[in-house]
Amino acid sequence: MDIFQDSPILQGVKAITHAFAEQVIRPAAARHDAEESMPWDIMEQAANIGMAQTALIDTMSADGPPEAQAAAQGADAPPGKKKRRYGRQLAAVGSEELAWGCAGIMLAIGGSGLAASPVARMGTDAQKKLFKDCLTGKDEHGHVKVAAMALSEPATGSDISALKTTGVKDGDHWVLNGSKQWITNGKSAAVFVVWAQCDPSLGRGGVRGFVVPRGTPGLIPGRKEIKLGIRASETAQVILEDCRVPVEWMLGSSVPAGAQEGLSGTKKMLDATRPVVAAQAVGIAQAAYEHVLRRVQSSSLHGTPMAGHQHLAFALAEMEMEISASRLLVHRAAWMADQDLENVKWASMAKAHAARTAQEVTTRAMAMLGEEALEPGHPVEKWYRDAKIYDIFEGTGQIQRRIVAKELLGLNAT
Amino acid sequence: MDFSLDEEQQLIVATFRRFADEARKLGQHADESDDSGAGAARTALAKAADLGVGIDAIPEAAGGMLSGAYSHTIRALRGLELGRGCAGVAALLESNVEPALAAARWASPEVAAALHGALAGGALATTTHDALGRITITTAASGDLTLDGTLGPVPALADAAHIVISARDAAGPVVILAPTSAFTITPVFPSGWRAARWARLDAKAVRLPAAAVLTRDPAAQHELLSWYKLSLAARAIGVADFAMQCSAGYSQERVQFNQPIGSFESLARMQDQSETATLAGRFLVLRAAAALDAGSPDAAELCSRARDFAAGVVRRASIDAVQIYGGYGFVRDFPVEKLMRDARAFEVLAGDEALTRVLARRQDAATYAGAPAPAARS
Q1: Rounded to an integer, what distance in angstroms lies between the CA atom of residue A86 and that of residue A83?
Q2: pLDDT by residue (tens digit) across B315-339?
Q3: Is A366 on the interface with B (CB under 8 A)?
C-alpha cells in the first residue's frame, strides 16, 4: 500500500498544507522564533482556509458543517464500497507539512485542537456550543481566539494521575483550586479545558474536565514561559483560585465520576493524537534533512563535491531511512485510529521513534553545516531547538517506552 | 601511572571552580540581557584578569604571565572548570591563548611583540579555522594575499582587535594573523554561548601583506588547531559535567509515579552512561594535554580525538539533562535549557571533527595502517 498514491484526499491535503507552509509559514518562522511571538496573522489565514480552531468539534457535532463531517468520515468511497475514514491520517499529513514550515507556528495554529478534542469527545451539545461560542469572533486585540488544554501541573508532568488541582462540589457549582504548568495558549486563551481531581478515591477516574471561559472569576492566566524552541507557540501557567464553575460545565457531567468520562476516558483520545504529534517531529526532521541534502548536492569541500564523500552521503542515507521509518509508523498508527483499531503500542512507537529521529537528524545536520549553522535565525539551529520538545510533551520518550513495554509484558516496569 | 593532580594543579582547579560559579551568573545575565552580552563580557574579562586569564600565554617580558613553556595541562584543567560555569564566558576568556602562542611561535619578533603588548594591555584576539573552504585566498607573486568570503560566527570577534585565520589557499595550508579592522566585522548573537561576543567576518577583496602569513607549514597548522581543539574539548567536558550535576540533583528531587525519577532504571542508565563518557572524556583531554606539553608526535591526533569525543559527550549530556528535567528543562528558568543551546558550538566550530578525522585517515592511510591483520584460519 502506498499511503499517498492510494488516496487523492491525502495527496490533496499534503499539497495544500505544504504550499501554505512554504509560502506563508516558513518565511515568518525566524521572526516569530526570535521575537517569541504568536503568529496571529498566520493563525487567521489558516482559519480562513479551513484550519479552523473548531474544526474538530464540527466533525463530531450533529450540527457541524456537512463538508467537515464528510472529510472525517470518508467521502471518496465508490458506491457500494465501505467508506474509508481519514480523520487522523489527514491530521498527520497536514501536521507534518505545517511543522515542516515551523513547528512553533504549527502548534499556534493547532494548539486549540488539544482543548477541542476532549470537548468533541466528551462534551454535551451545550458544552460544545459554549466552547465554540467562546472562540467566535476576535479578542480585544483583534486576534483570532484560541483555546487551552489545562492539564499538566508543576509537580505532575508524566504522572497525570497525581494531579493536585482539586474540584470540590458546592451546591450547583464546582470550586477549582490549583496551578497548571506548560499550558499551550495559557496566557491568551478565550476558553480553557481545566482538569481537576474531583474524587481522589477514584484515582485517575476521579479526574474531570471543565469548560471554563476566560474571565471566569478565579481563573488567572499566568506568566508566559521563555522556551528553548517552538517559540511561536505560547506556553504559560494558569492559576485557579476558588474558581467557581457551574456543574453543567463539567465534561460528561451527566454521568458520575469514574464512569469512563474522567481522564481515563481520554486515553483513546491520546492514542489518536499521538500519531499527529509524532508527524510534527517527522516534519522537523524532513525540513532539516532537505536543507542539508541541498547543501551536500550543491557544495564542494576544498574542491571535491561534498556528495562524493561517503561519510556525508551515508549520513544522508541514515537520515532518509530513519525519517521514512518514522513516517510509516505515524501513518500506521493514524490509520489504526481511523479504523477504531487498538493502536496504543503503535501510537507510542511512532511518537518515540519520530522524536528521536528529529533530534538526531537536526543535530547531525548542524554538524554537517559547520559554523554557518550558528548564525542567528539559521533554520537548522531553530529546528534543533524545536525538535527537543517532541521527546517531552504529550508523553515523554520514557513514557512512550513504558507504554510499549507494558503492551509487551503486561506490567509497568520501573 | 599517577592520575592525581599536583599542588599547583589543585589550586588551579579550586580557583576556577569558584570562578565558574560567578561565570555562570554572568552567562545567565548575558542570556537575559539585550545588550548582546557586552555587559557580561566586560565584567567577566575584568574579573578574570585578576586571575591572569587573557595574559597567561603572553611572555612576562611583554607584560604577560608566561615564564617558560606554556602548560596545556593547566589550561585544560582551567577549561574543565570554566565549562562548568558558562561556555560563553569561557570562550571569551580563552580566546587570547592561540593568537599569543601562534605569534610567539611563528611571527617575526616585531609582530609578536606588538601583539603581545596589545594583549597585555587588555586587547582581545581570536582564532577561526575555515574547515569548509568558505573563504578564498589568492596569493600574488609578491606574497601579498587577497581574501574573499565569509567566516564565522567566531566567538570574541565582536571585541577582538586581532584574528588568527587558519585556512587553505592554492598552495596548501596557511595561517594568517591580521587586524580585524581589515575586514567587515558584524556582531551577531547566536542562541548559544551568548556571552561570547560573536561576530561574522566578511572579506571583499581584502588585501593583506605577505607578512600577515604566520606559517604555511602543515604541521604548524595542526599544532595551532590542536591547542584550539583541546581547549574546546576541555570546556565541552566541563559543560557536560555541569549538565550531569544538574540532572543528578533534579532526578532525586522530582517524584513521578511515587518514586524519584532517578530511581527508574532507564534514567539511571542514561545518567550512568553520561557519567562514564564524561569521565572518559576528562581522561582523554588530560592525556592529550600531557602529550602537547611533552611535544609528543601523537599530540595532534589525541587532541583531535579528544575534541571529537567531547563534542559527542556534551551533546548527549545536555540533551539528556533537558530530558530528565522534562517540561522544566525546556524553559529558561532552569539551567539545562541553556546547556543544550551551548552544546552545539563545541561540535561545529572549526568544522565537523568526525569528517576531519575521516579525511585524515583517508589521506594518510599509512599512519593509520597499524599492524597487519591476522591471517584467516586455515
Answers
A1: 10
A2: 999 999 999 999 999 999 999 999 9
A3: yes
